[in-house]
Write a structure and sequence with these properties.
By secondary structure, the protein is an all-alpha fold. The protein has three helices and no strands. The chain has helices at about 10-25, 40-45, 45-70.
Length: about 80
């Protein structure tokens, strides 16, 4: 099994840990059942998922800027002139 490596900073890793902890649904062997890992912790084992999360986290400001501050297309002005009656 390949080991997933975090390529981000310590601050980004701390934010990832907080997010995983917030969404953790692991069951710890209650009522004689074996412990199970949640999908949030399973995601940490996939290198492609970690790389994509880091990419999106770093690019989010650009994505938001492009979405919210896109220049609207200008409508062509229609000139209305008064008709003599």
């Amino acid at each position: 099994m390949a080991i997933a490596i975090w390529h981000g900073t310590r601050h980004e890793l701390a934010r990832l840990r907080e997010a995983v902890a917030e969404h953790c649904e692991c069951l710890g062997g209650m009522f004689g059942l074996p412990p199970t890992r949640c999908s949030a912790h399973d995601m940490l084992a996939h290198q492609a998922s970690l790389d994509h999360l880091l990419y999106v986290y770093r690019m989010r400001k650009l994505f938001i800027r492009r979405e919210l501050y896109a220049m609207p297309t200008r409508a062509t002005a229609v000139r209305r002139t008064a008709r003599p009656t």
